[in-house]
Amino acid sequence: MSKLFEKLFRPMLFRLDAERAHEAGMSFLRSGLGSETAQRIAFRRYGFEFPYEIERFGLKFTNPIGIAAGFDKNARVVNQLASLGFGFVEVGTVTYRPQRGNDKPRMFRLPVDRALINRLGFNNDGAEAVAKRLSKLDRKCVVGVNIGKNKEVPNEEAVENYLATFDLVHPVADYITVNISSPNTPNLRELQRAENLDELLGSLQSRNRELGPKPLLVKIAPDLDDAGIEAAVDVCRRHEAAGMIATNTTVLRDGLRTPDADKLGPGGMSGRPLFDKSSEVIAKIYRYSNGSMPIIGVGGILNGDDAFAKIISGASLVQAYTGFVYGGPEFARNLNSRLASLLTLADFSTIDDAVGSRATCFSQEAAD
Fold first, then answer.
1. 2-367 to CATH, choices 2.140.10.10, 3.30.479.30, 3.40.190.10, 3.20.20.70
2. From the candidates 182, 270, 289, 313, which is the catalytic residue?
3. Which of 62, 73, 107, 143 is the most buried (most CB within 10 A)?
4. pLDDT at 327 (0 to 100)
């Protein structure tokens, strides 16, 4: 199936505009071809059972590989993604009011670099619609909901906007991620500043306690300097955030081999060029928190070796998006299988033993 996807289906999809190809893939999954029965027929085998028990912030995961926010923005293919082997799905980014996002074209492939650039701008159906959809779902995996700010809302009113979304998704989310790091909503990244994050996270945690605590995570950018990362970790620890997600996409274009990539315009870049930077941020969070902050590592994961590197740098779980776009339907299962083999080869008796085992090395390499 992997070779069939690589030789036939991926070239067909890549003839389409990147966003249209994504919509085609979503239609494929929604049609039922992503069901467990279809997967059993397609792969001539059923699933892959990850050999390690995984519990993070009070939730049990069948495996550590998740699909990052941005793929299933509106919670339409959660169970289909679980059937493909993902242990958890983070839907969104969801905003309080529906919004169309930025003008098209707004998503671009860089195949030479195994990367994507997007400036989608939180296009979604709105928190009420997504919450209603999730309330009817007999879910087959852990489901997180990633929340953001409506574009027209100034930062001075961001707290109220986030709280309104939080109230709607809280009953249907296993965990909630606060997205303050997308580069595609004007001034959103200013909310990463310690004083702004302190106010936002404090307000959300207060509401969280009122409603009945759910794990609350914060997603940060890869473009923060060391002082910014340390400050964000400090705020998250003081407000008892359940974890952090490192990282969102980058606005930098360093080291790209794609000709004229800068002519594609602004947007966040994901995929292989982000791998080292996100791993450095993971290691720094792990170090600054003395290993006490659970981290979901995301950025440039294309295979099991990449997932293993994220875990030993400090990640407790990992997420992928761009790797799935390039890797196809067997991506999650292949990644889980390889990761399990690497953990065994490294003689780790649990995945927890592997987490952060080389964080100091990653941090030192970054400093050098």
1. 3.20.20.70
2. 182
3. 143
4. 92
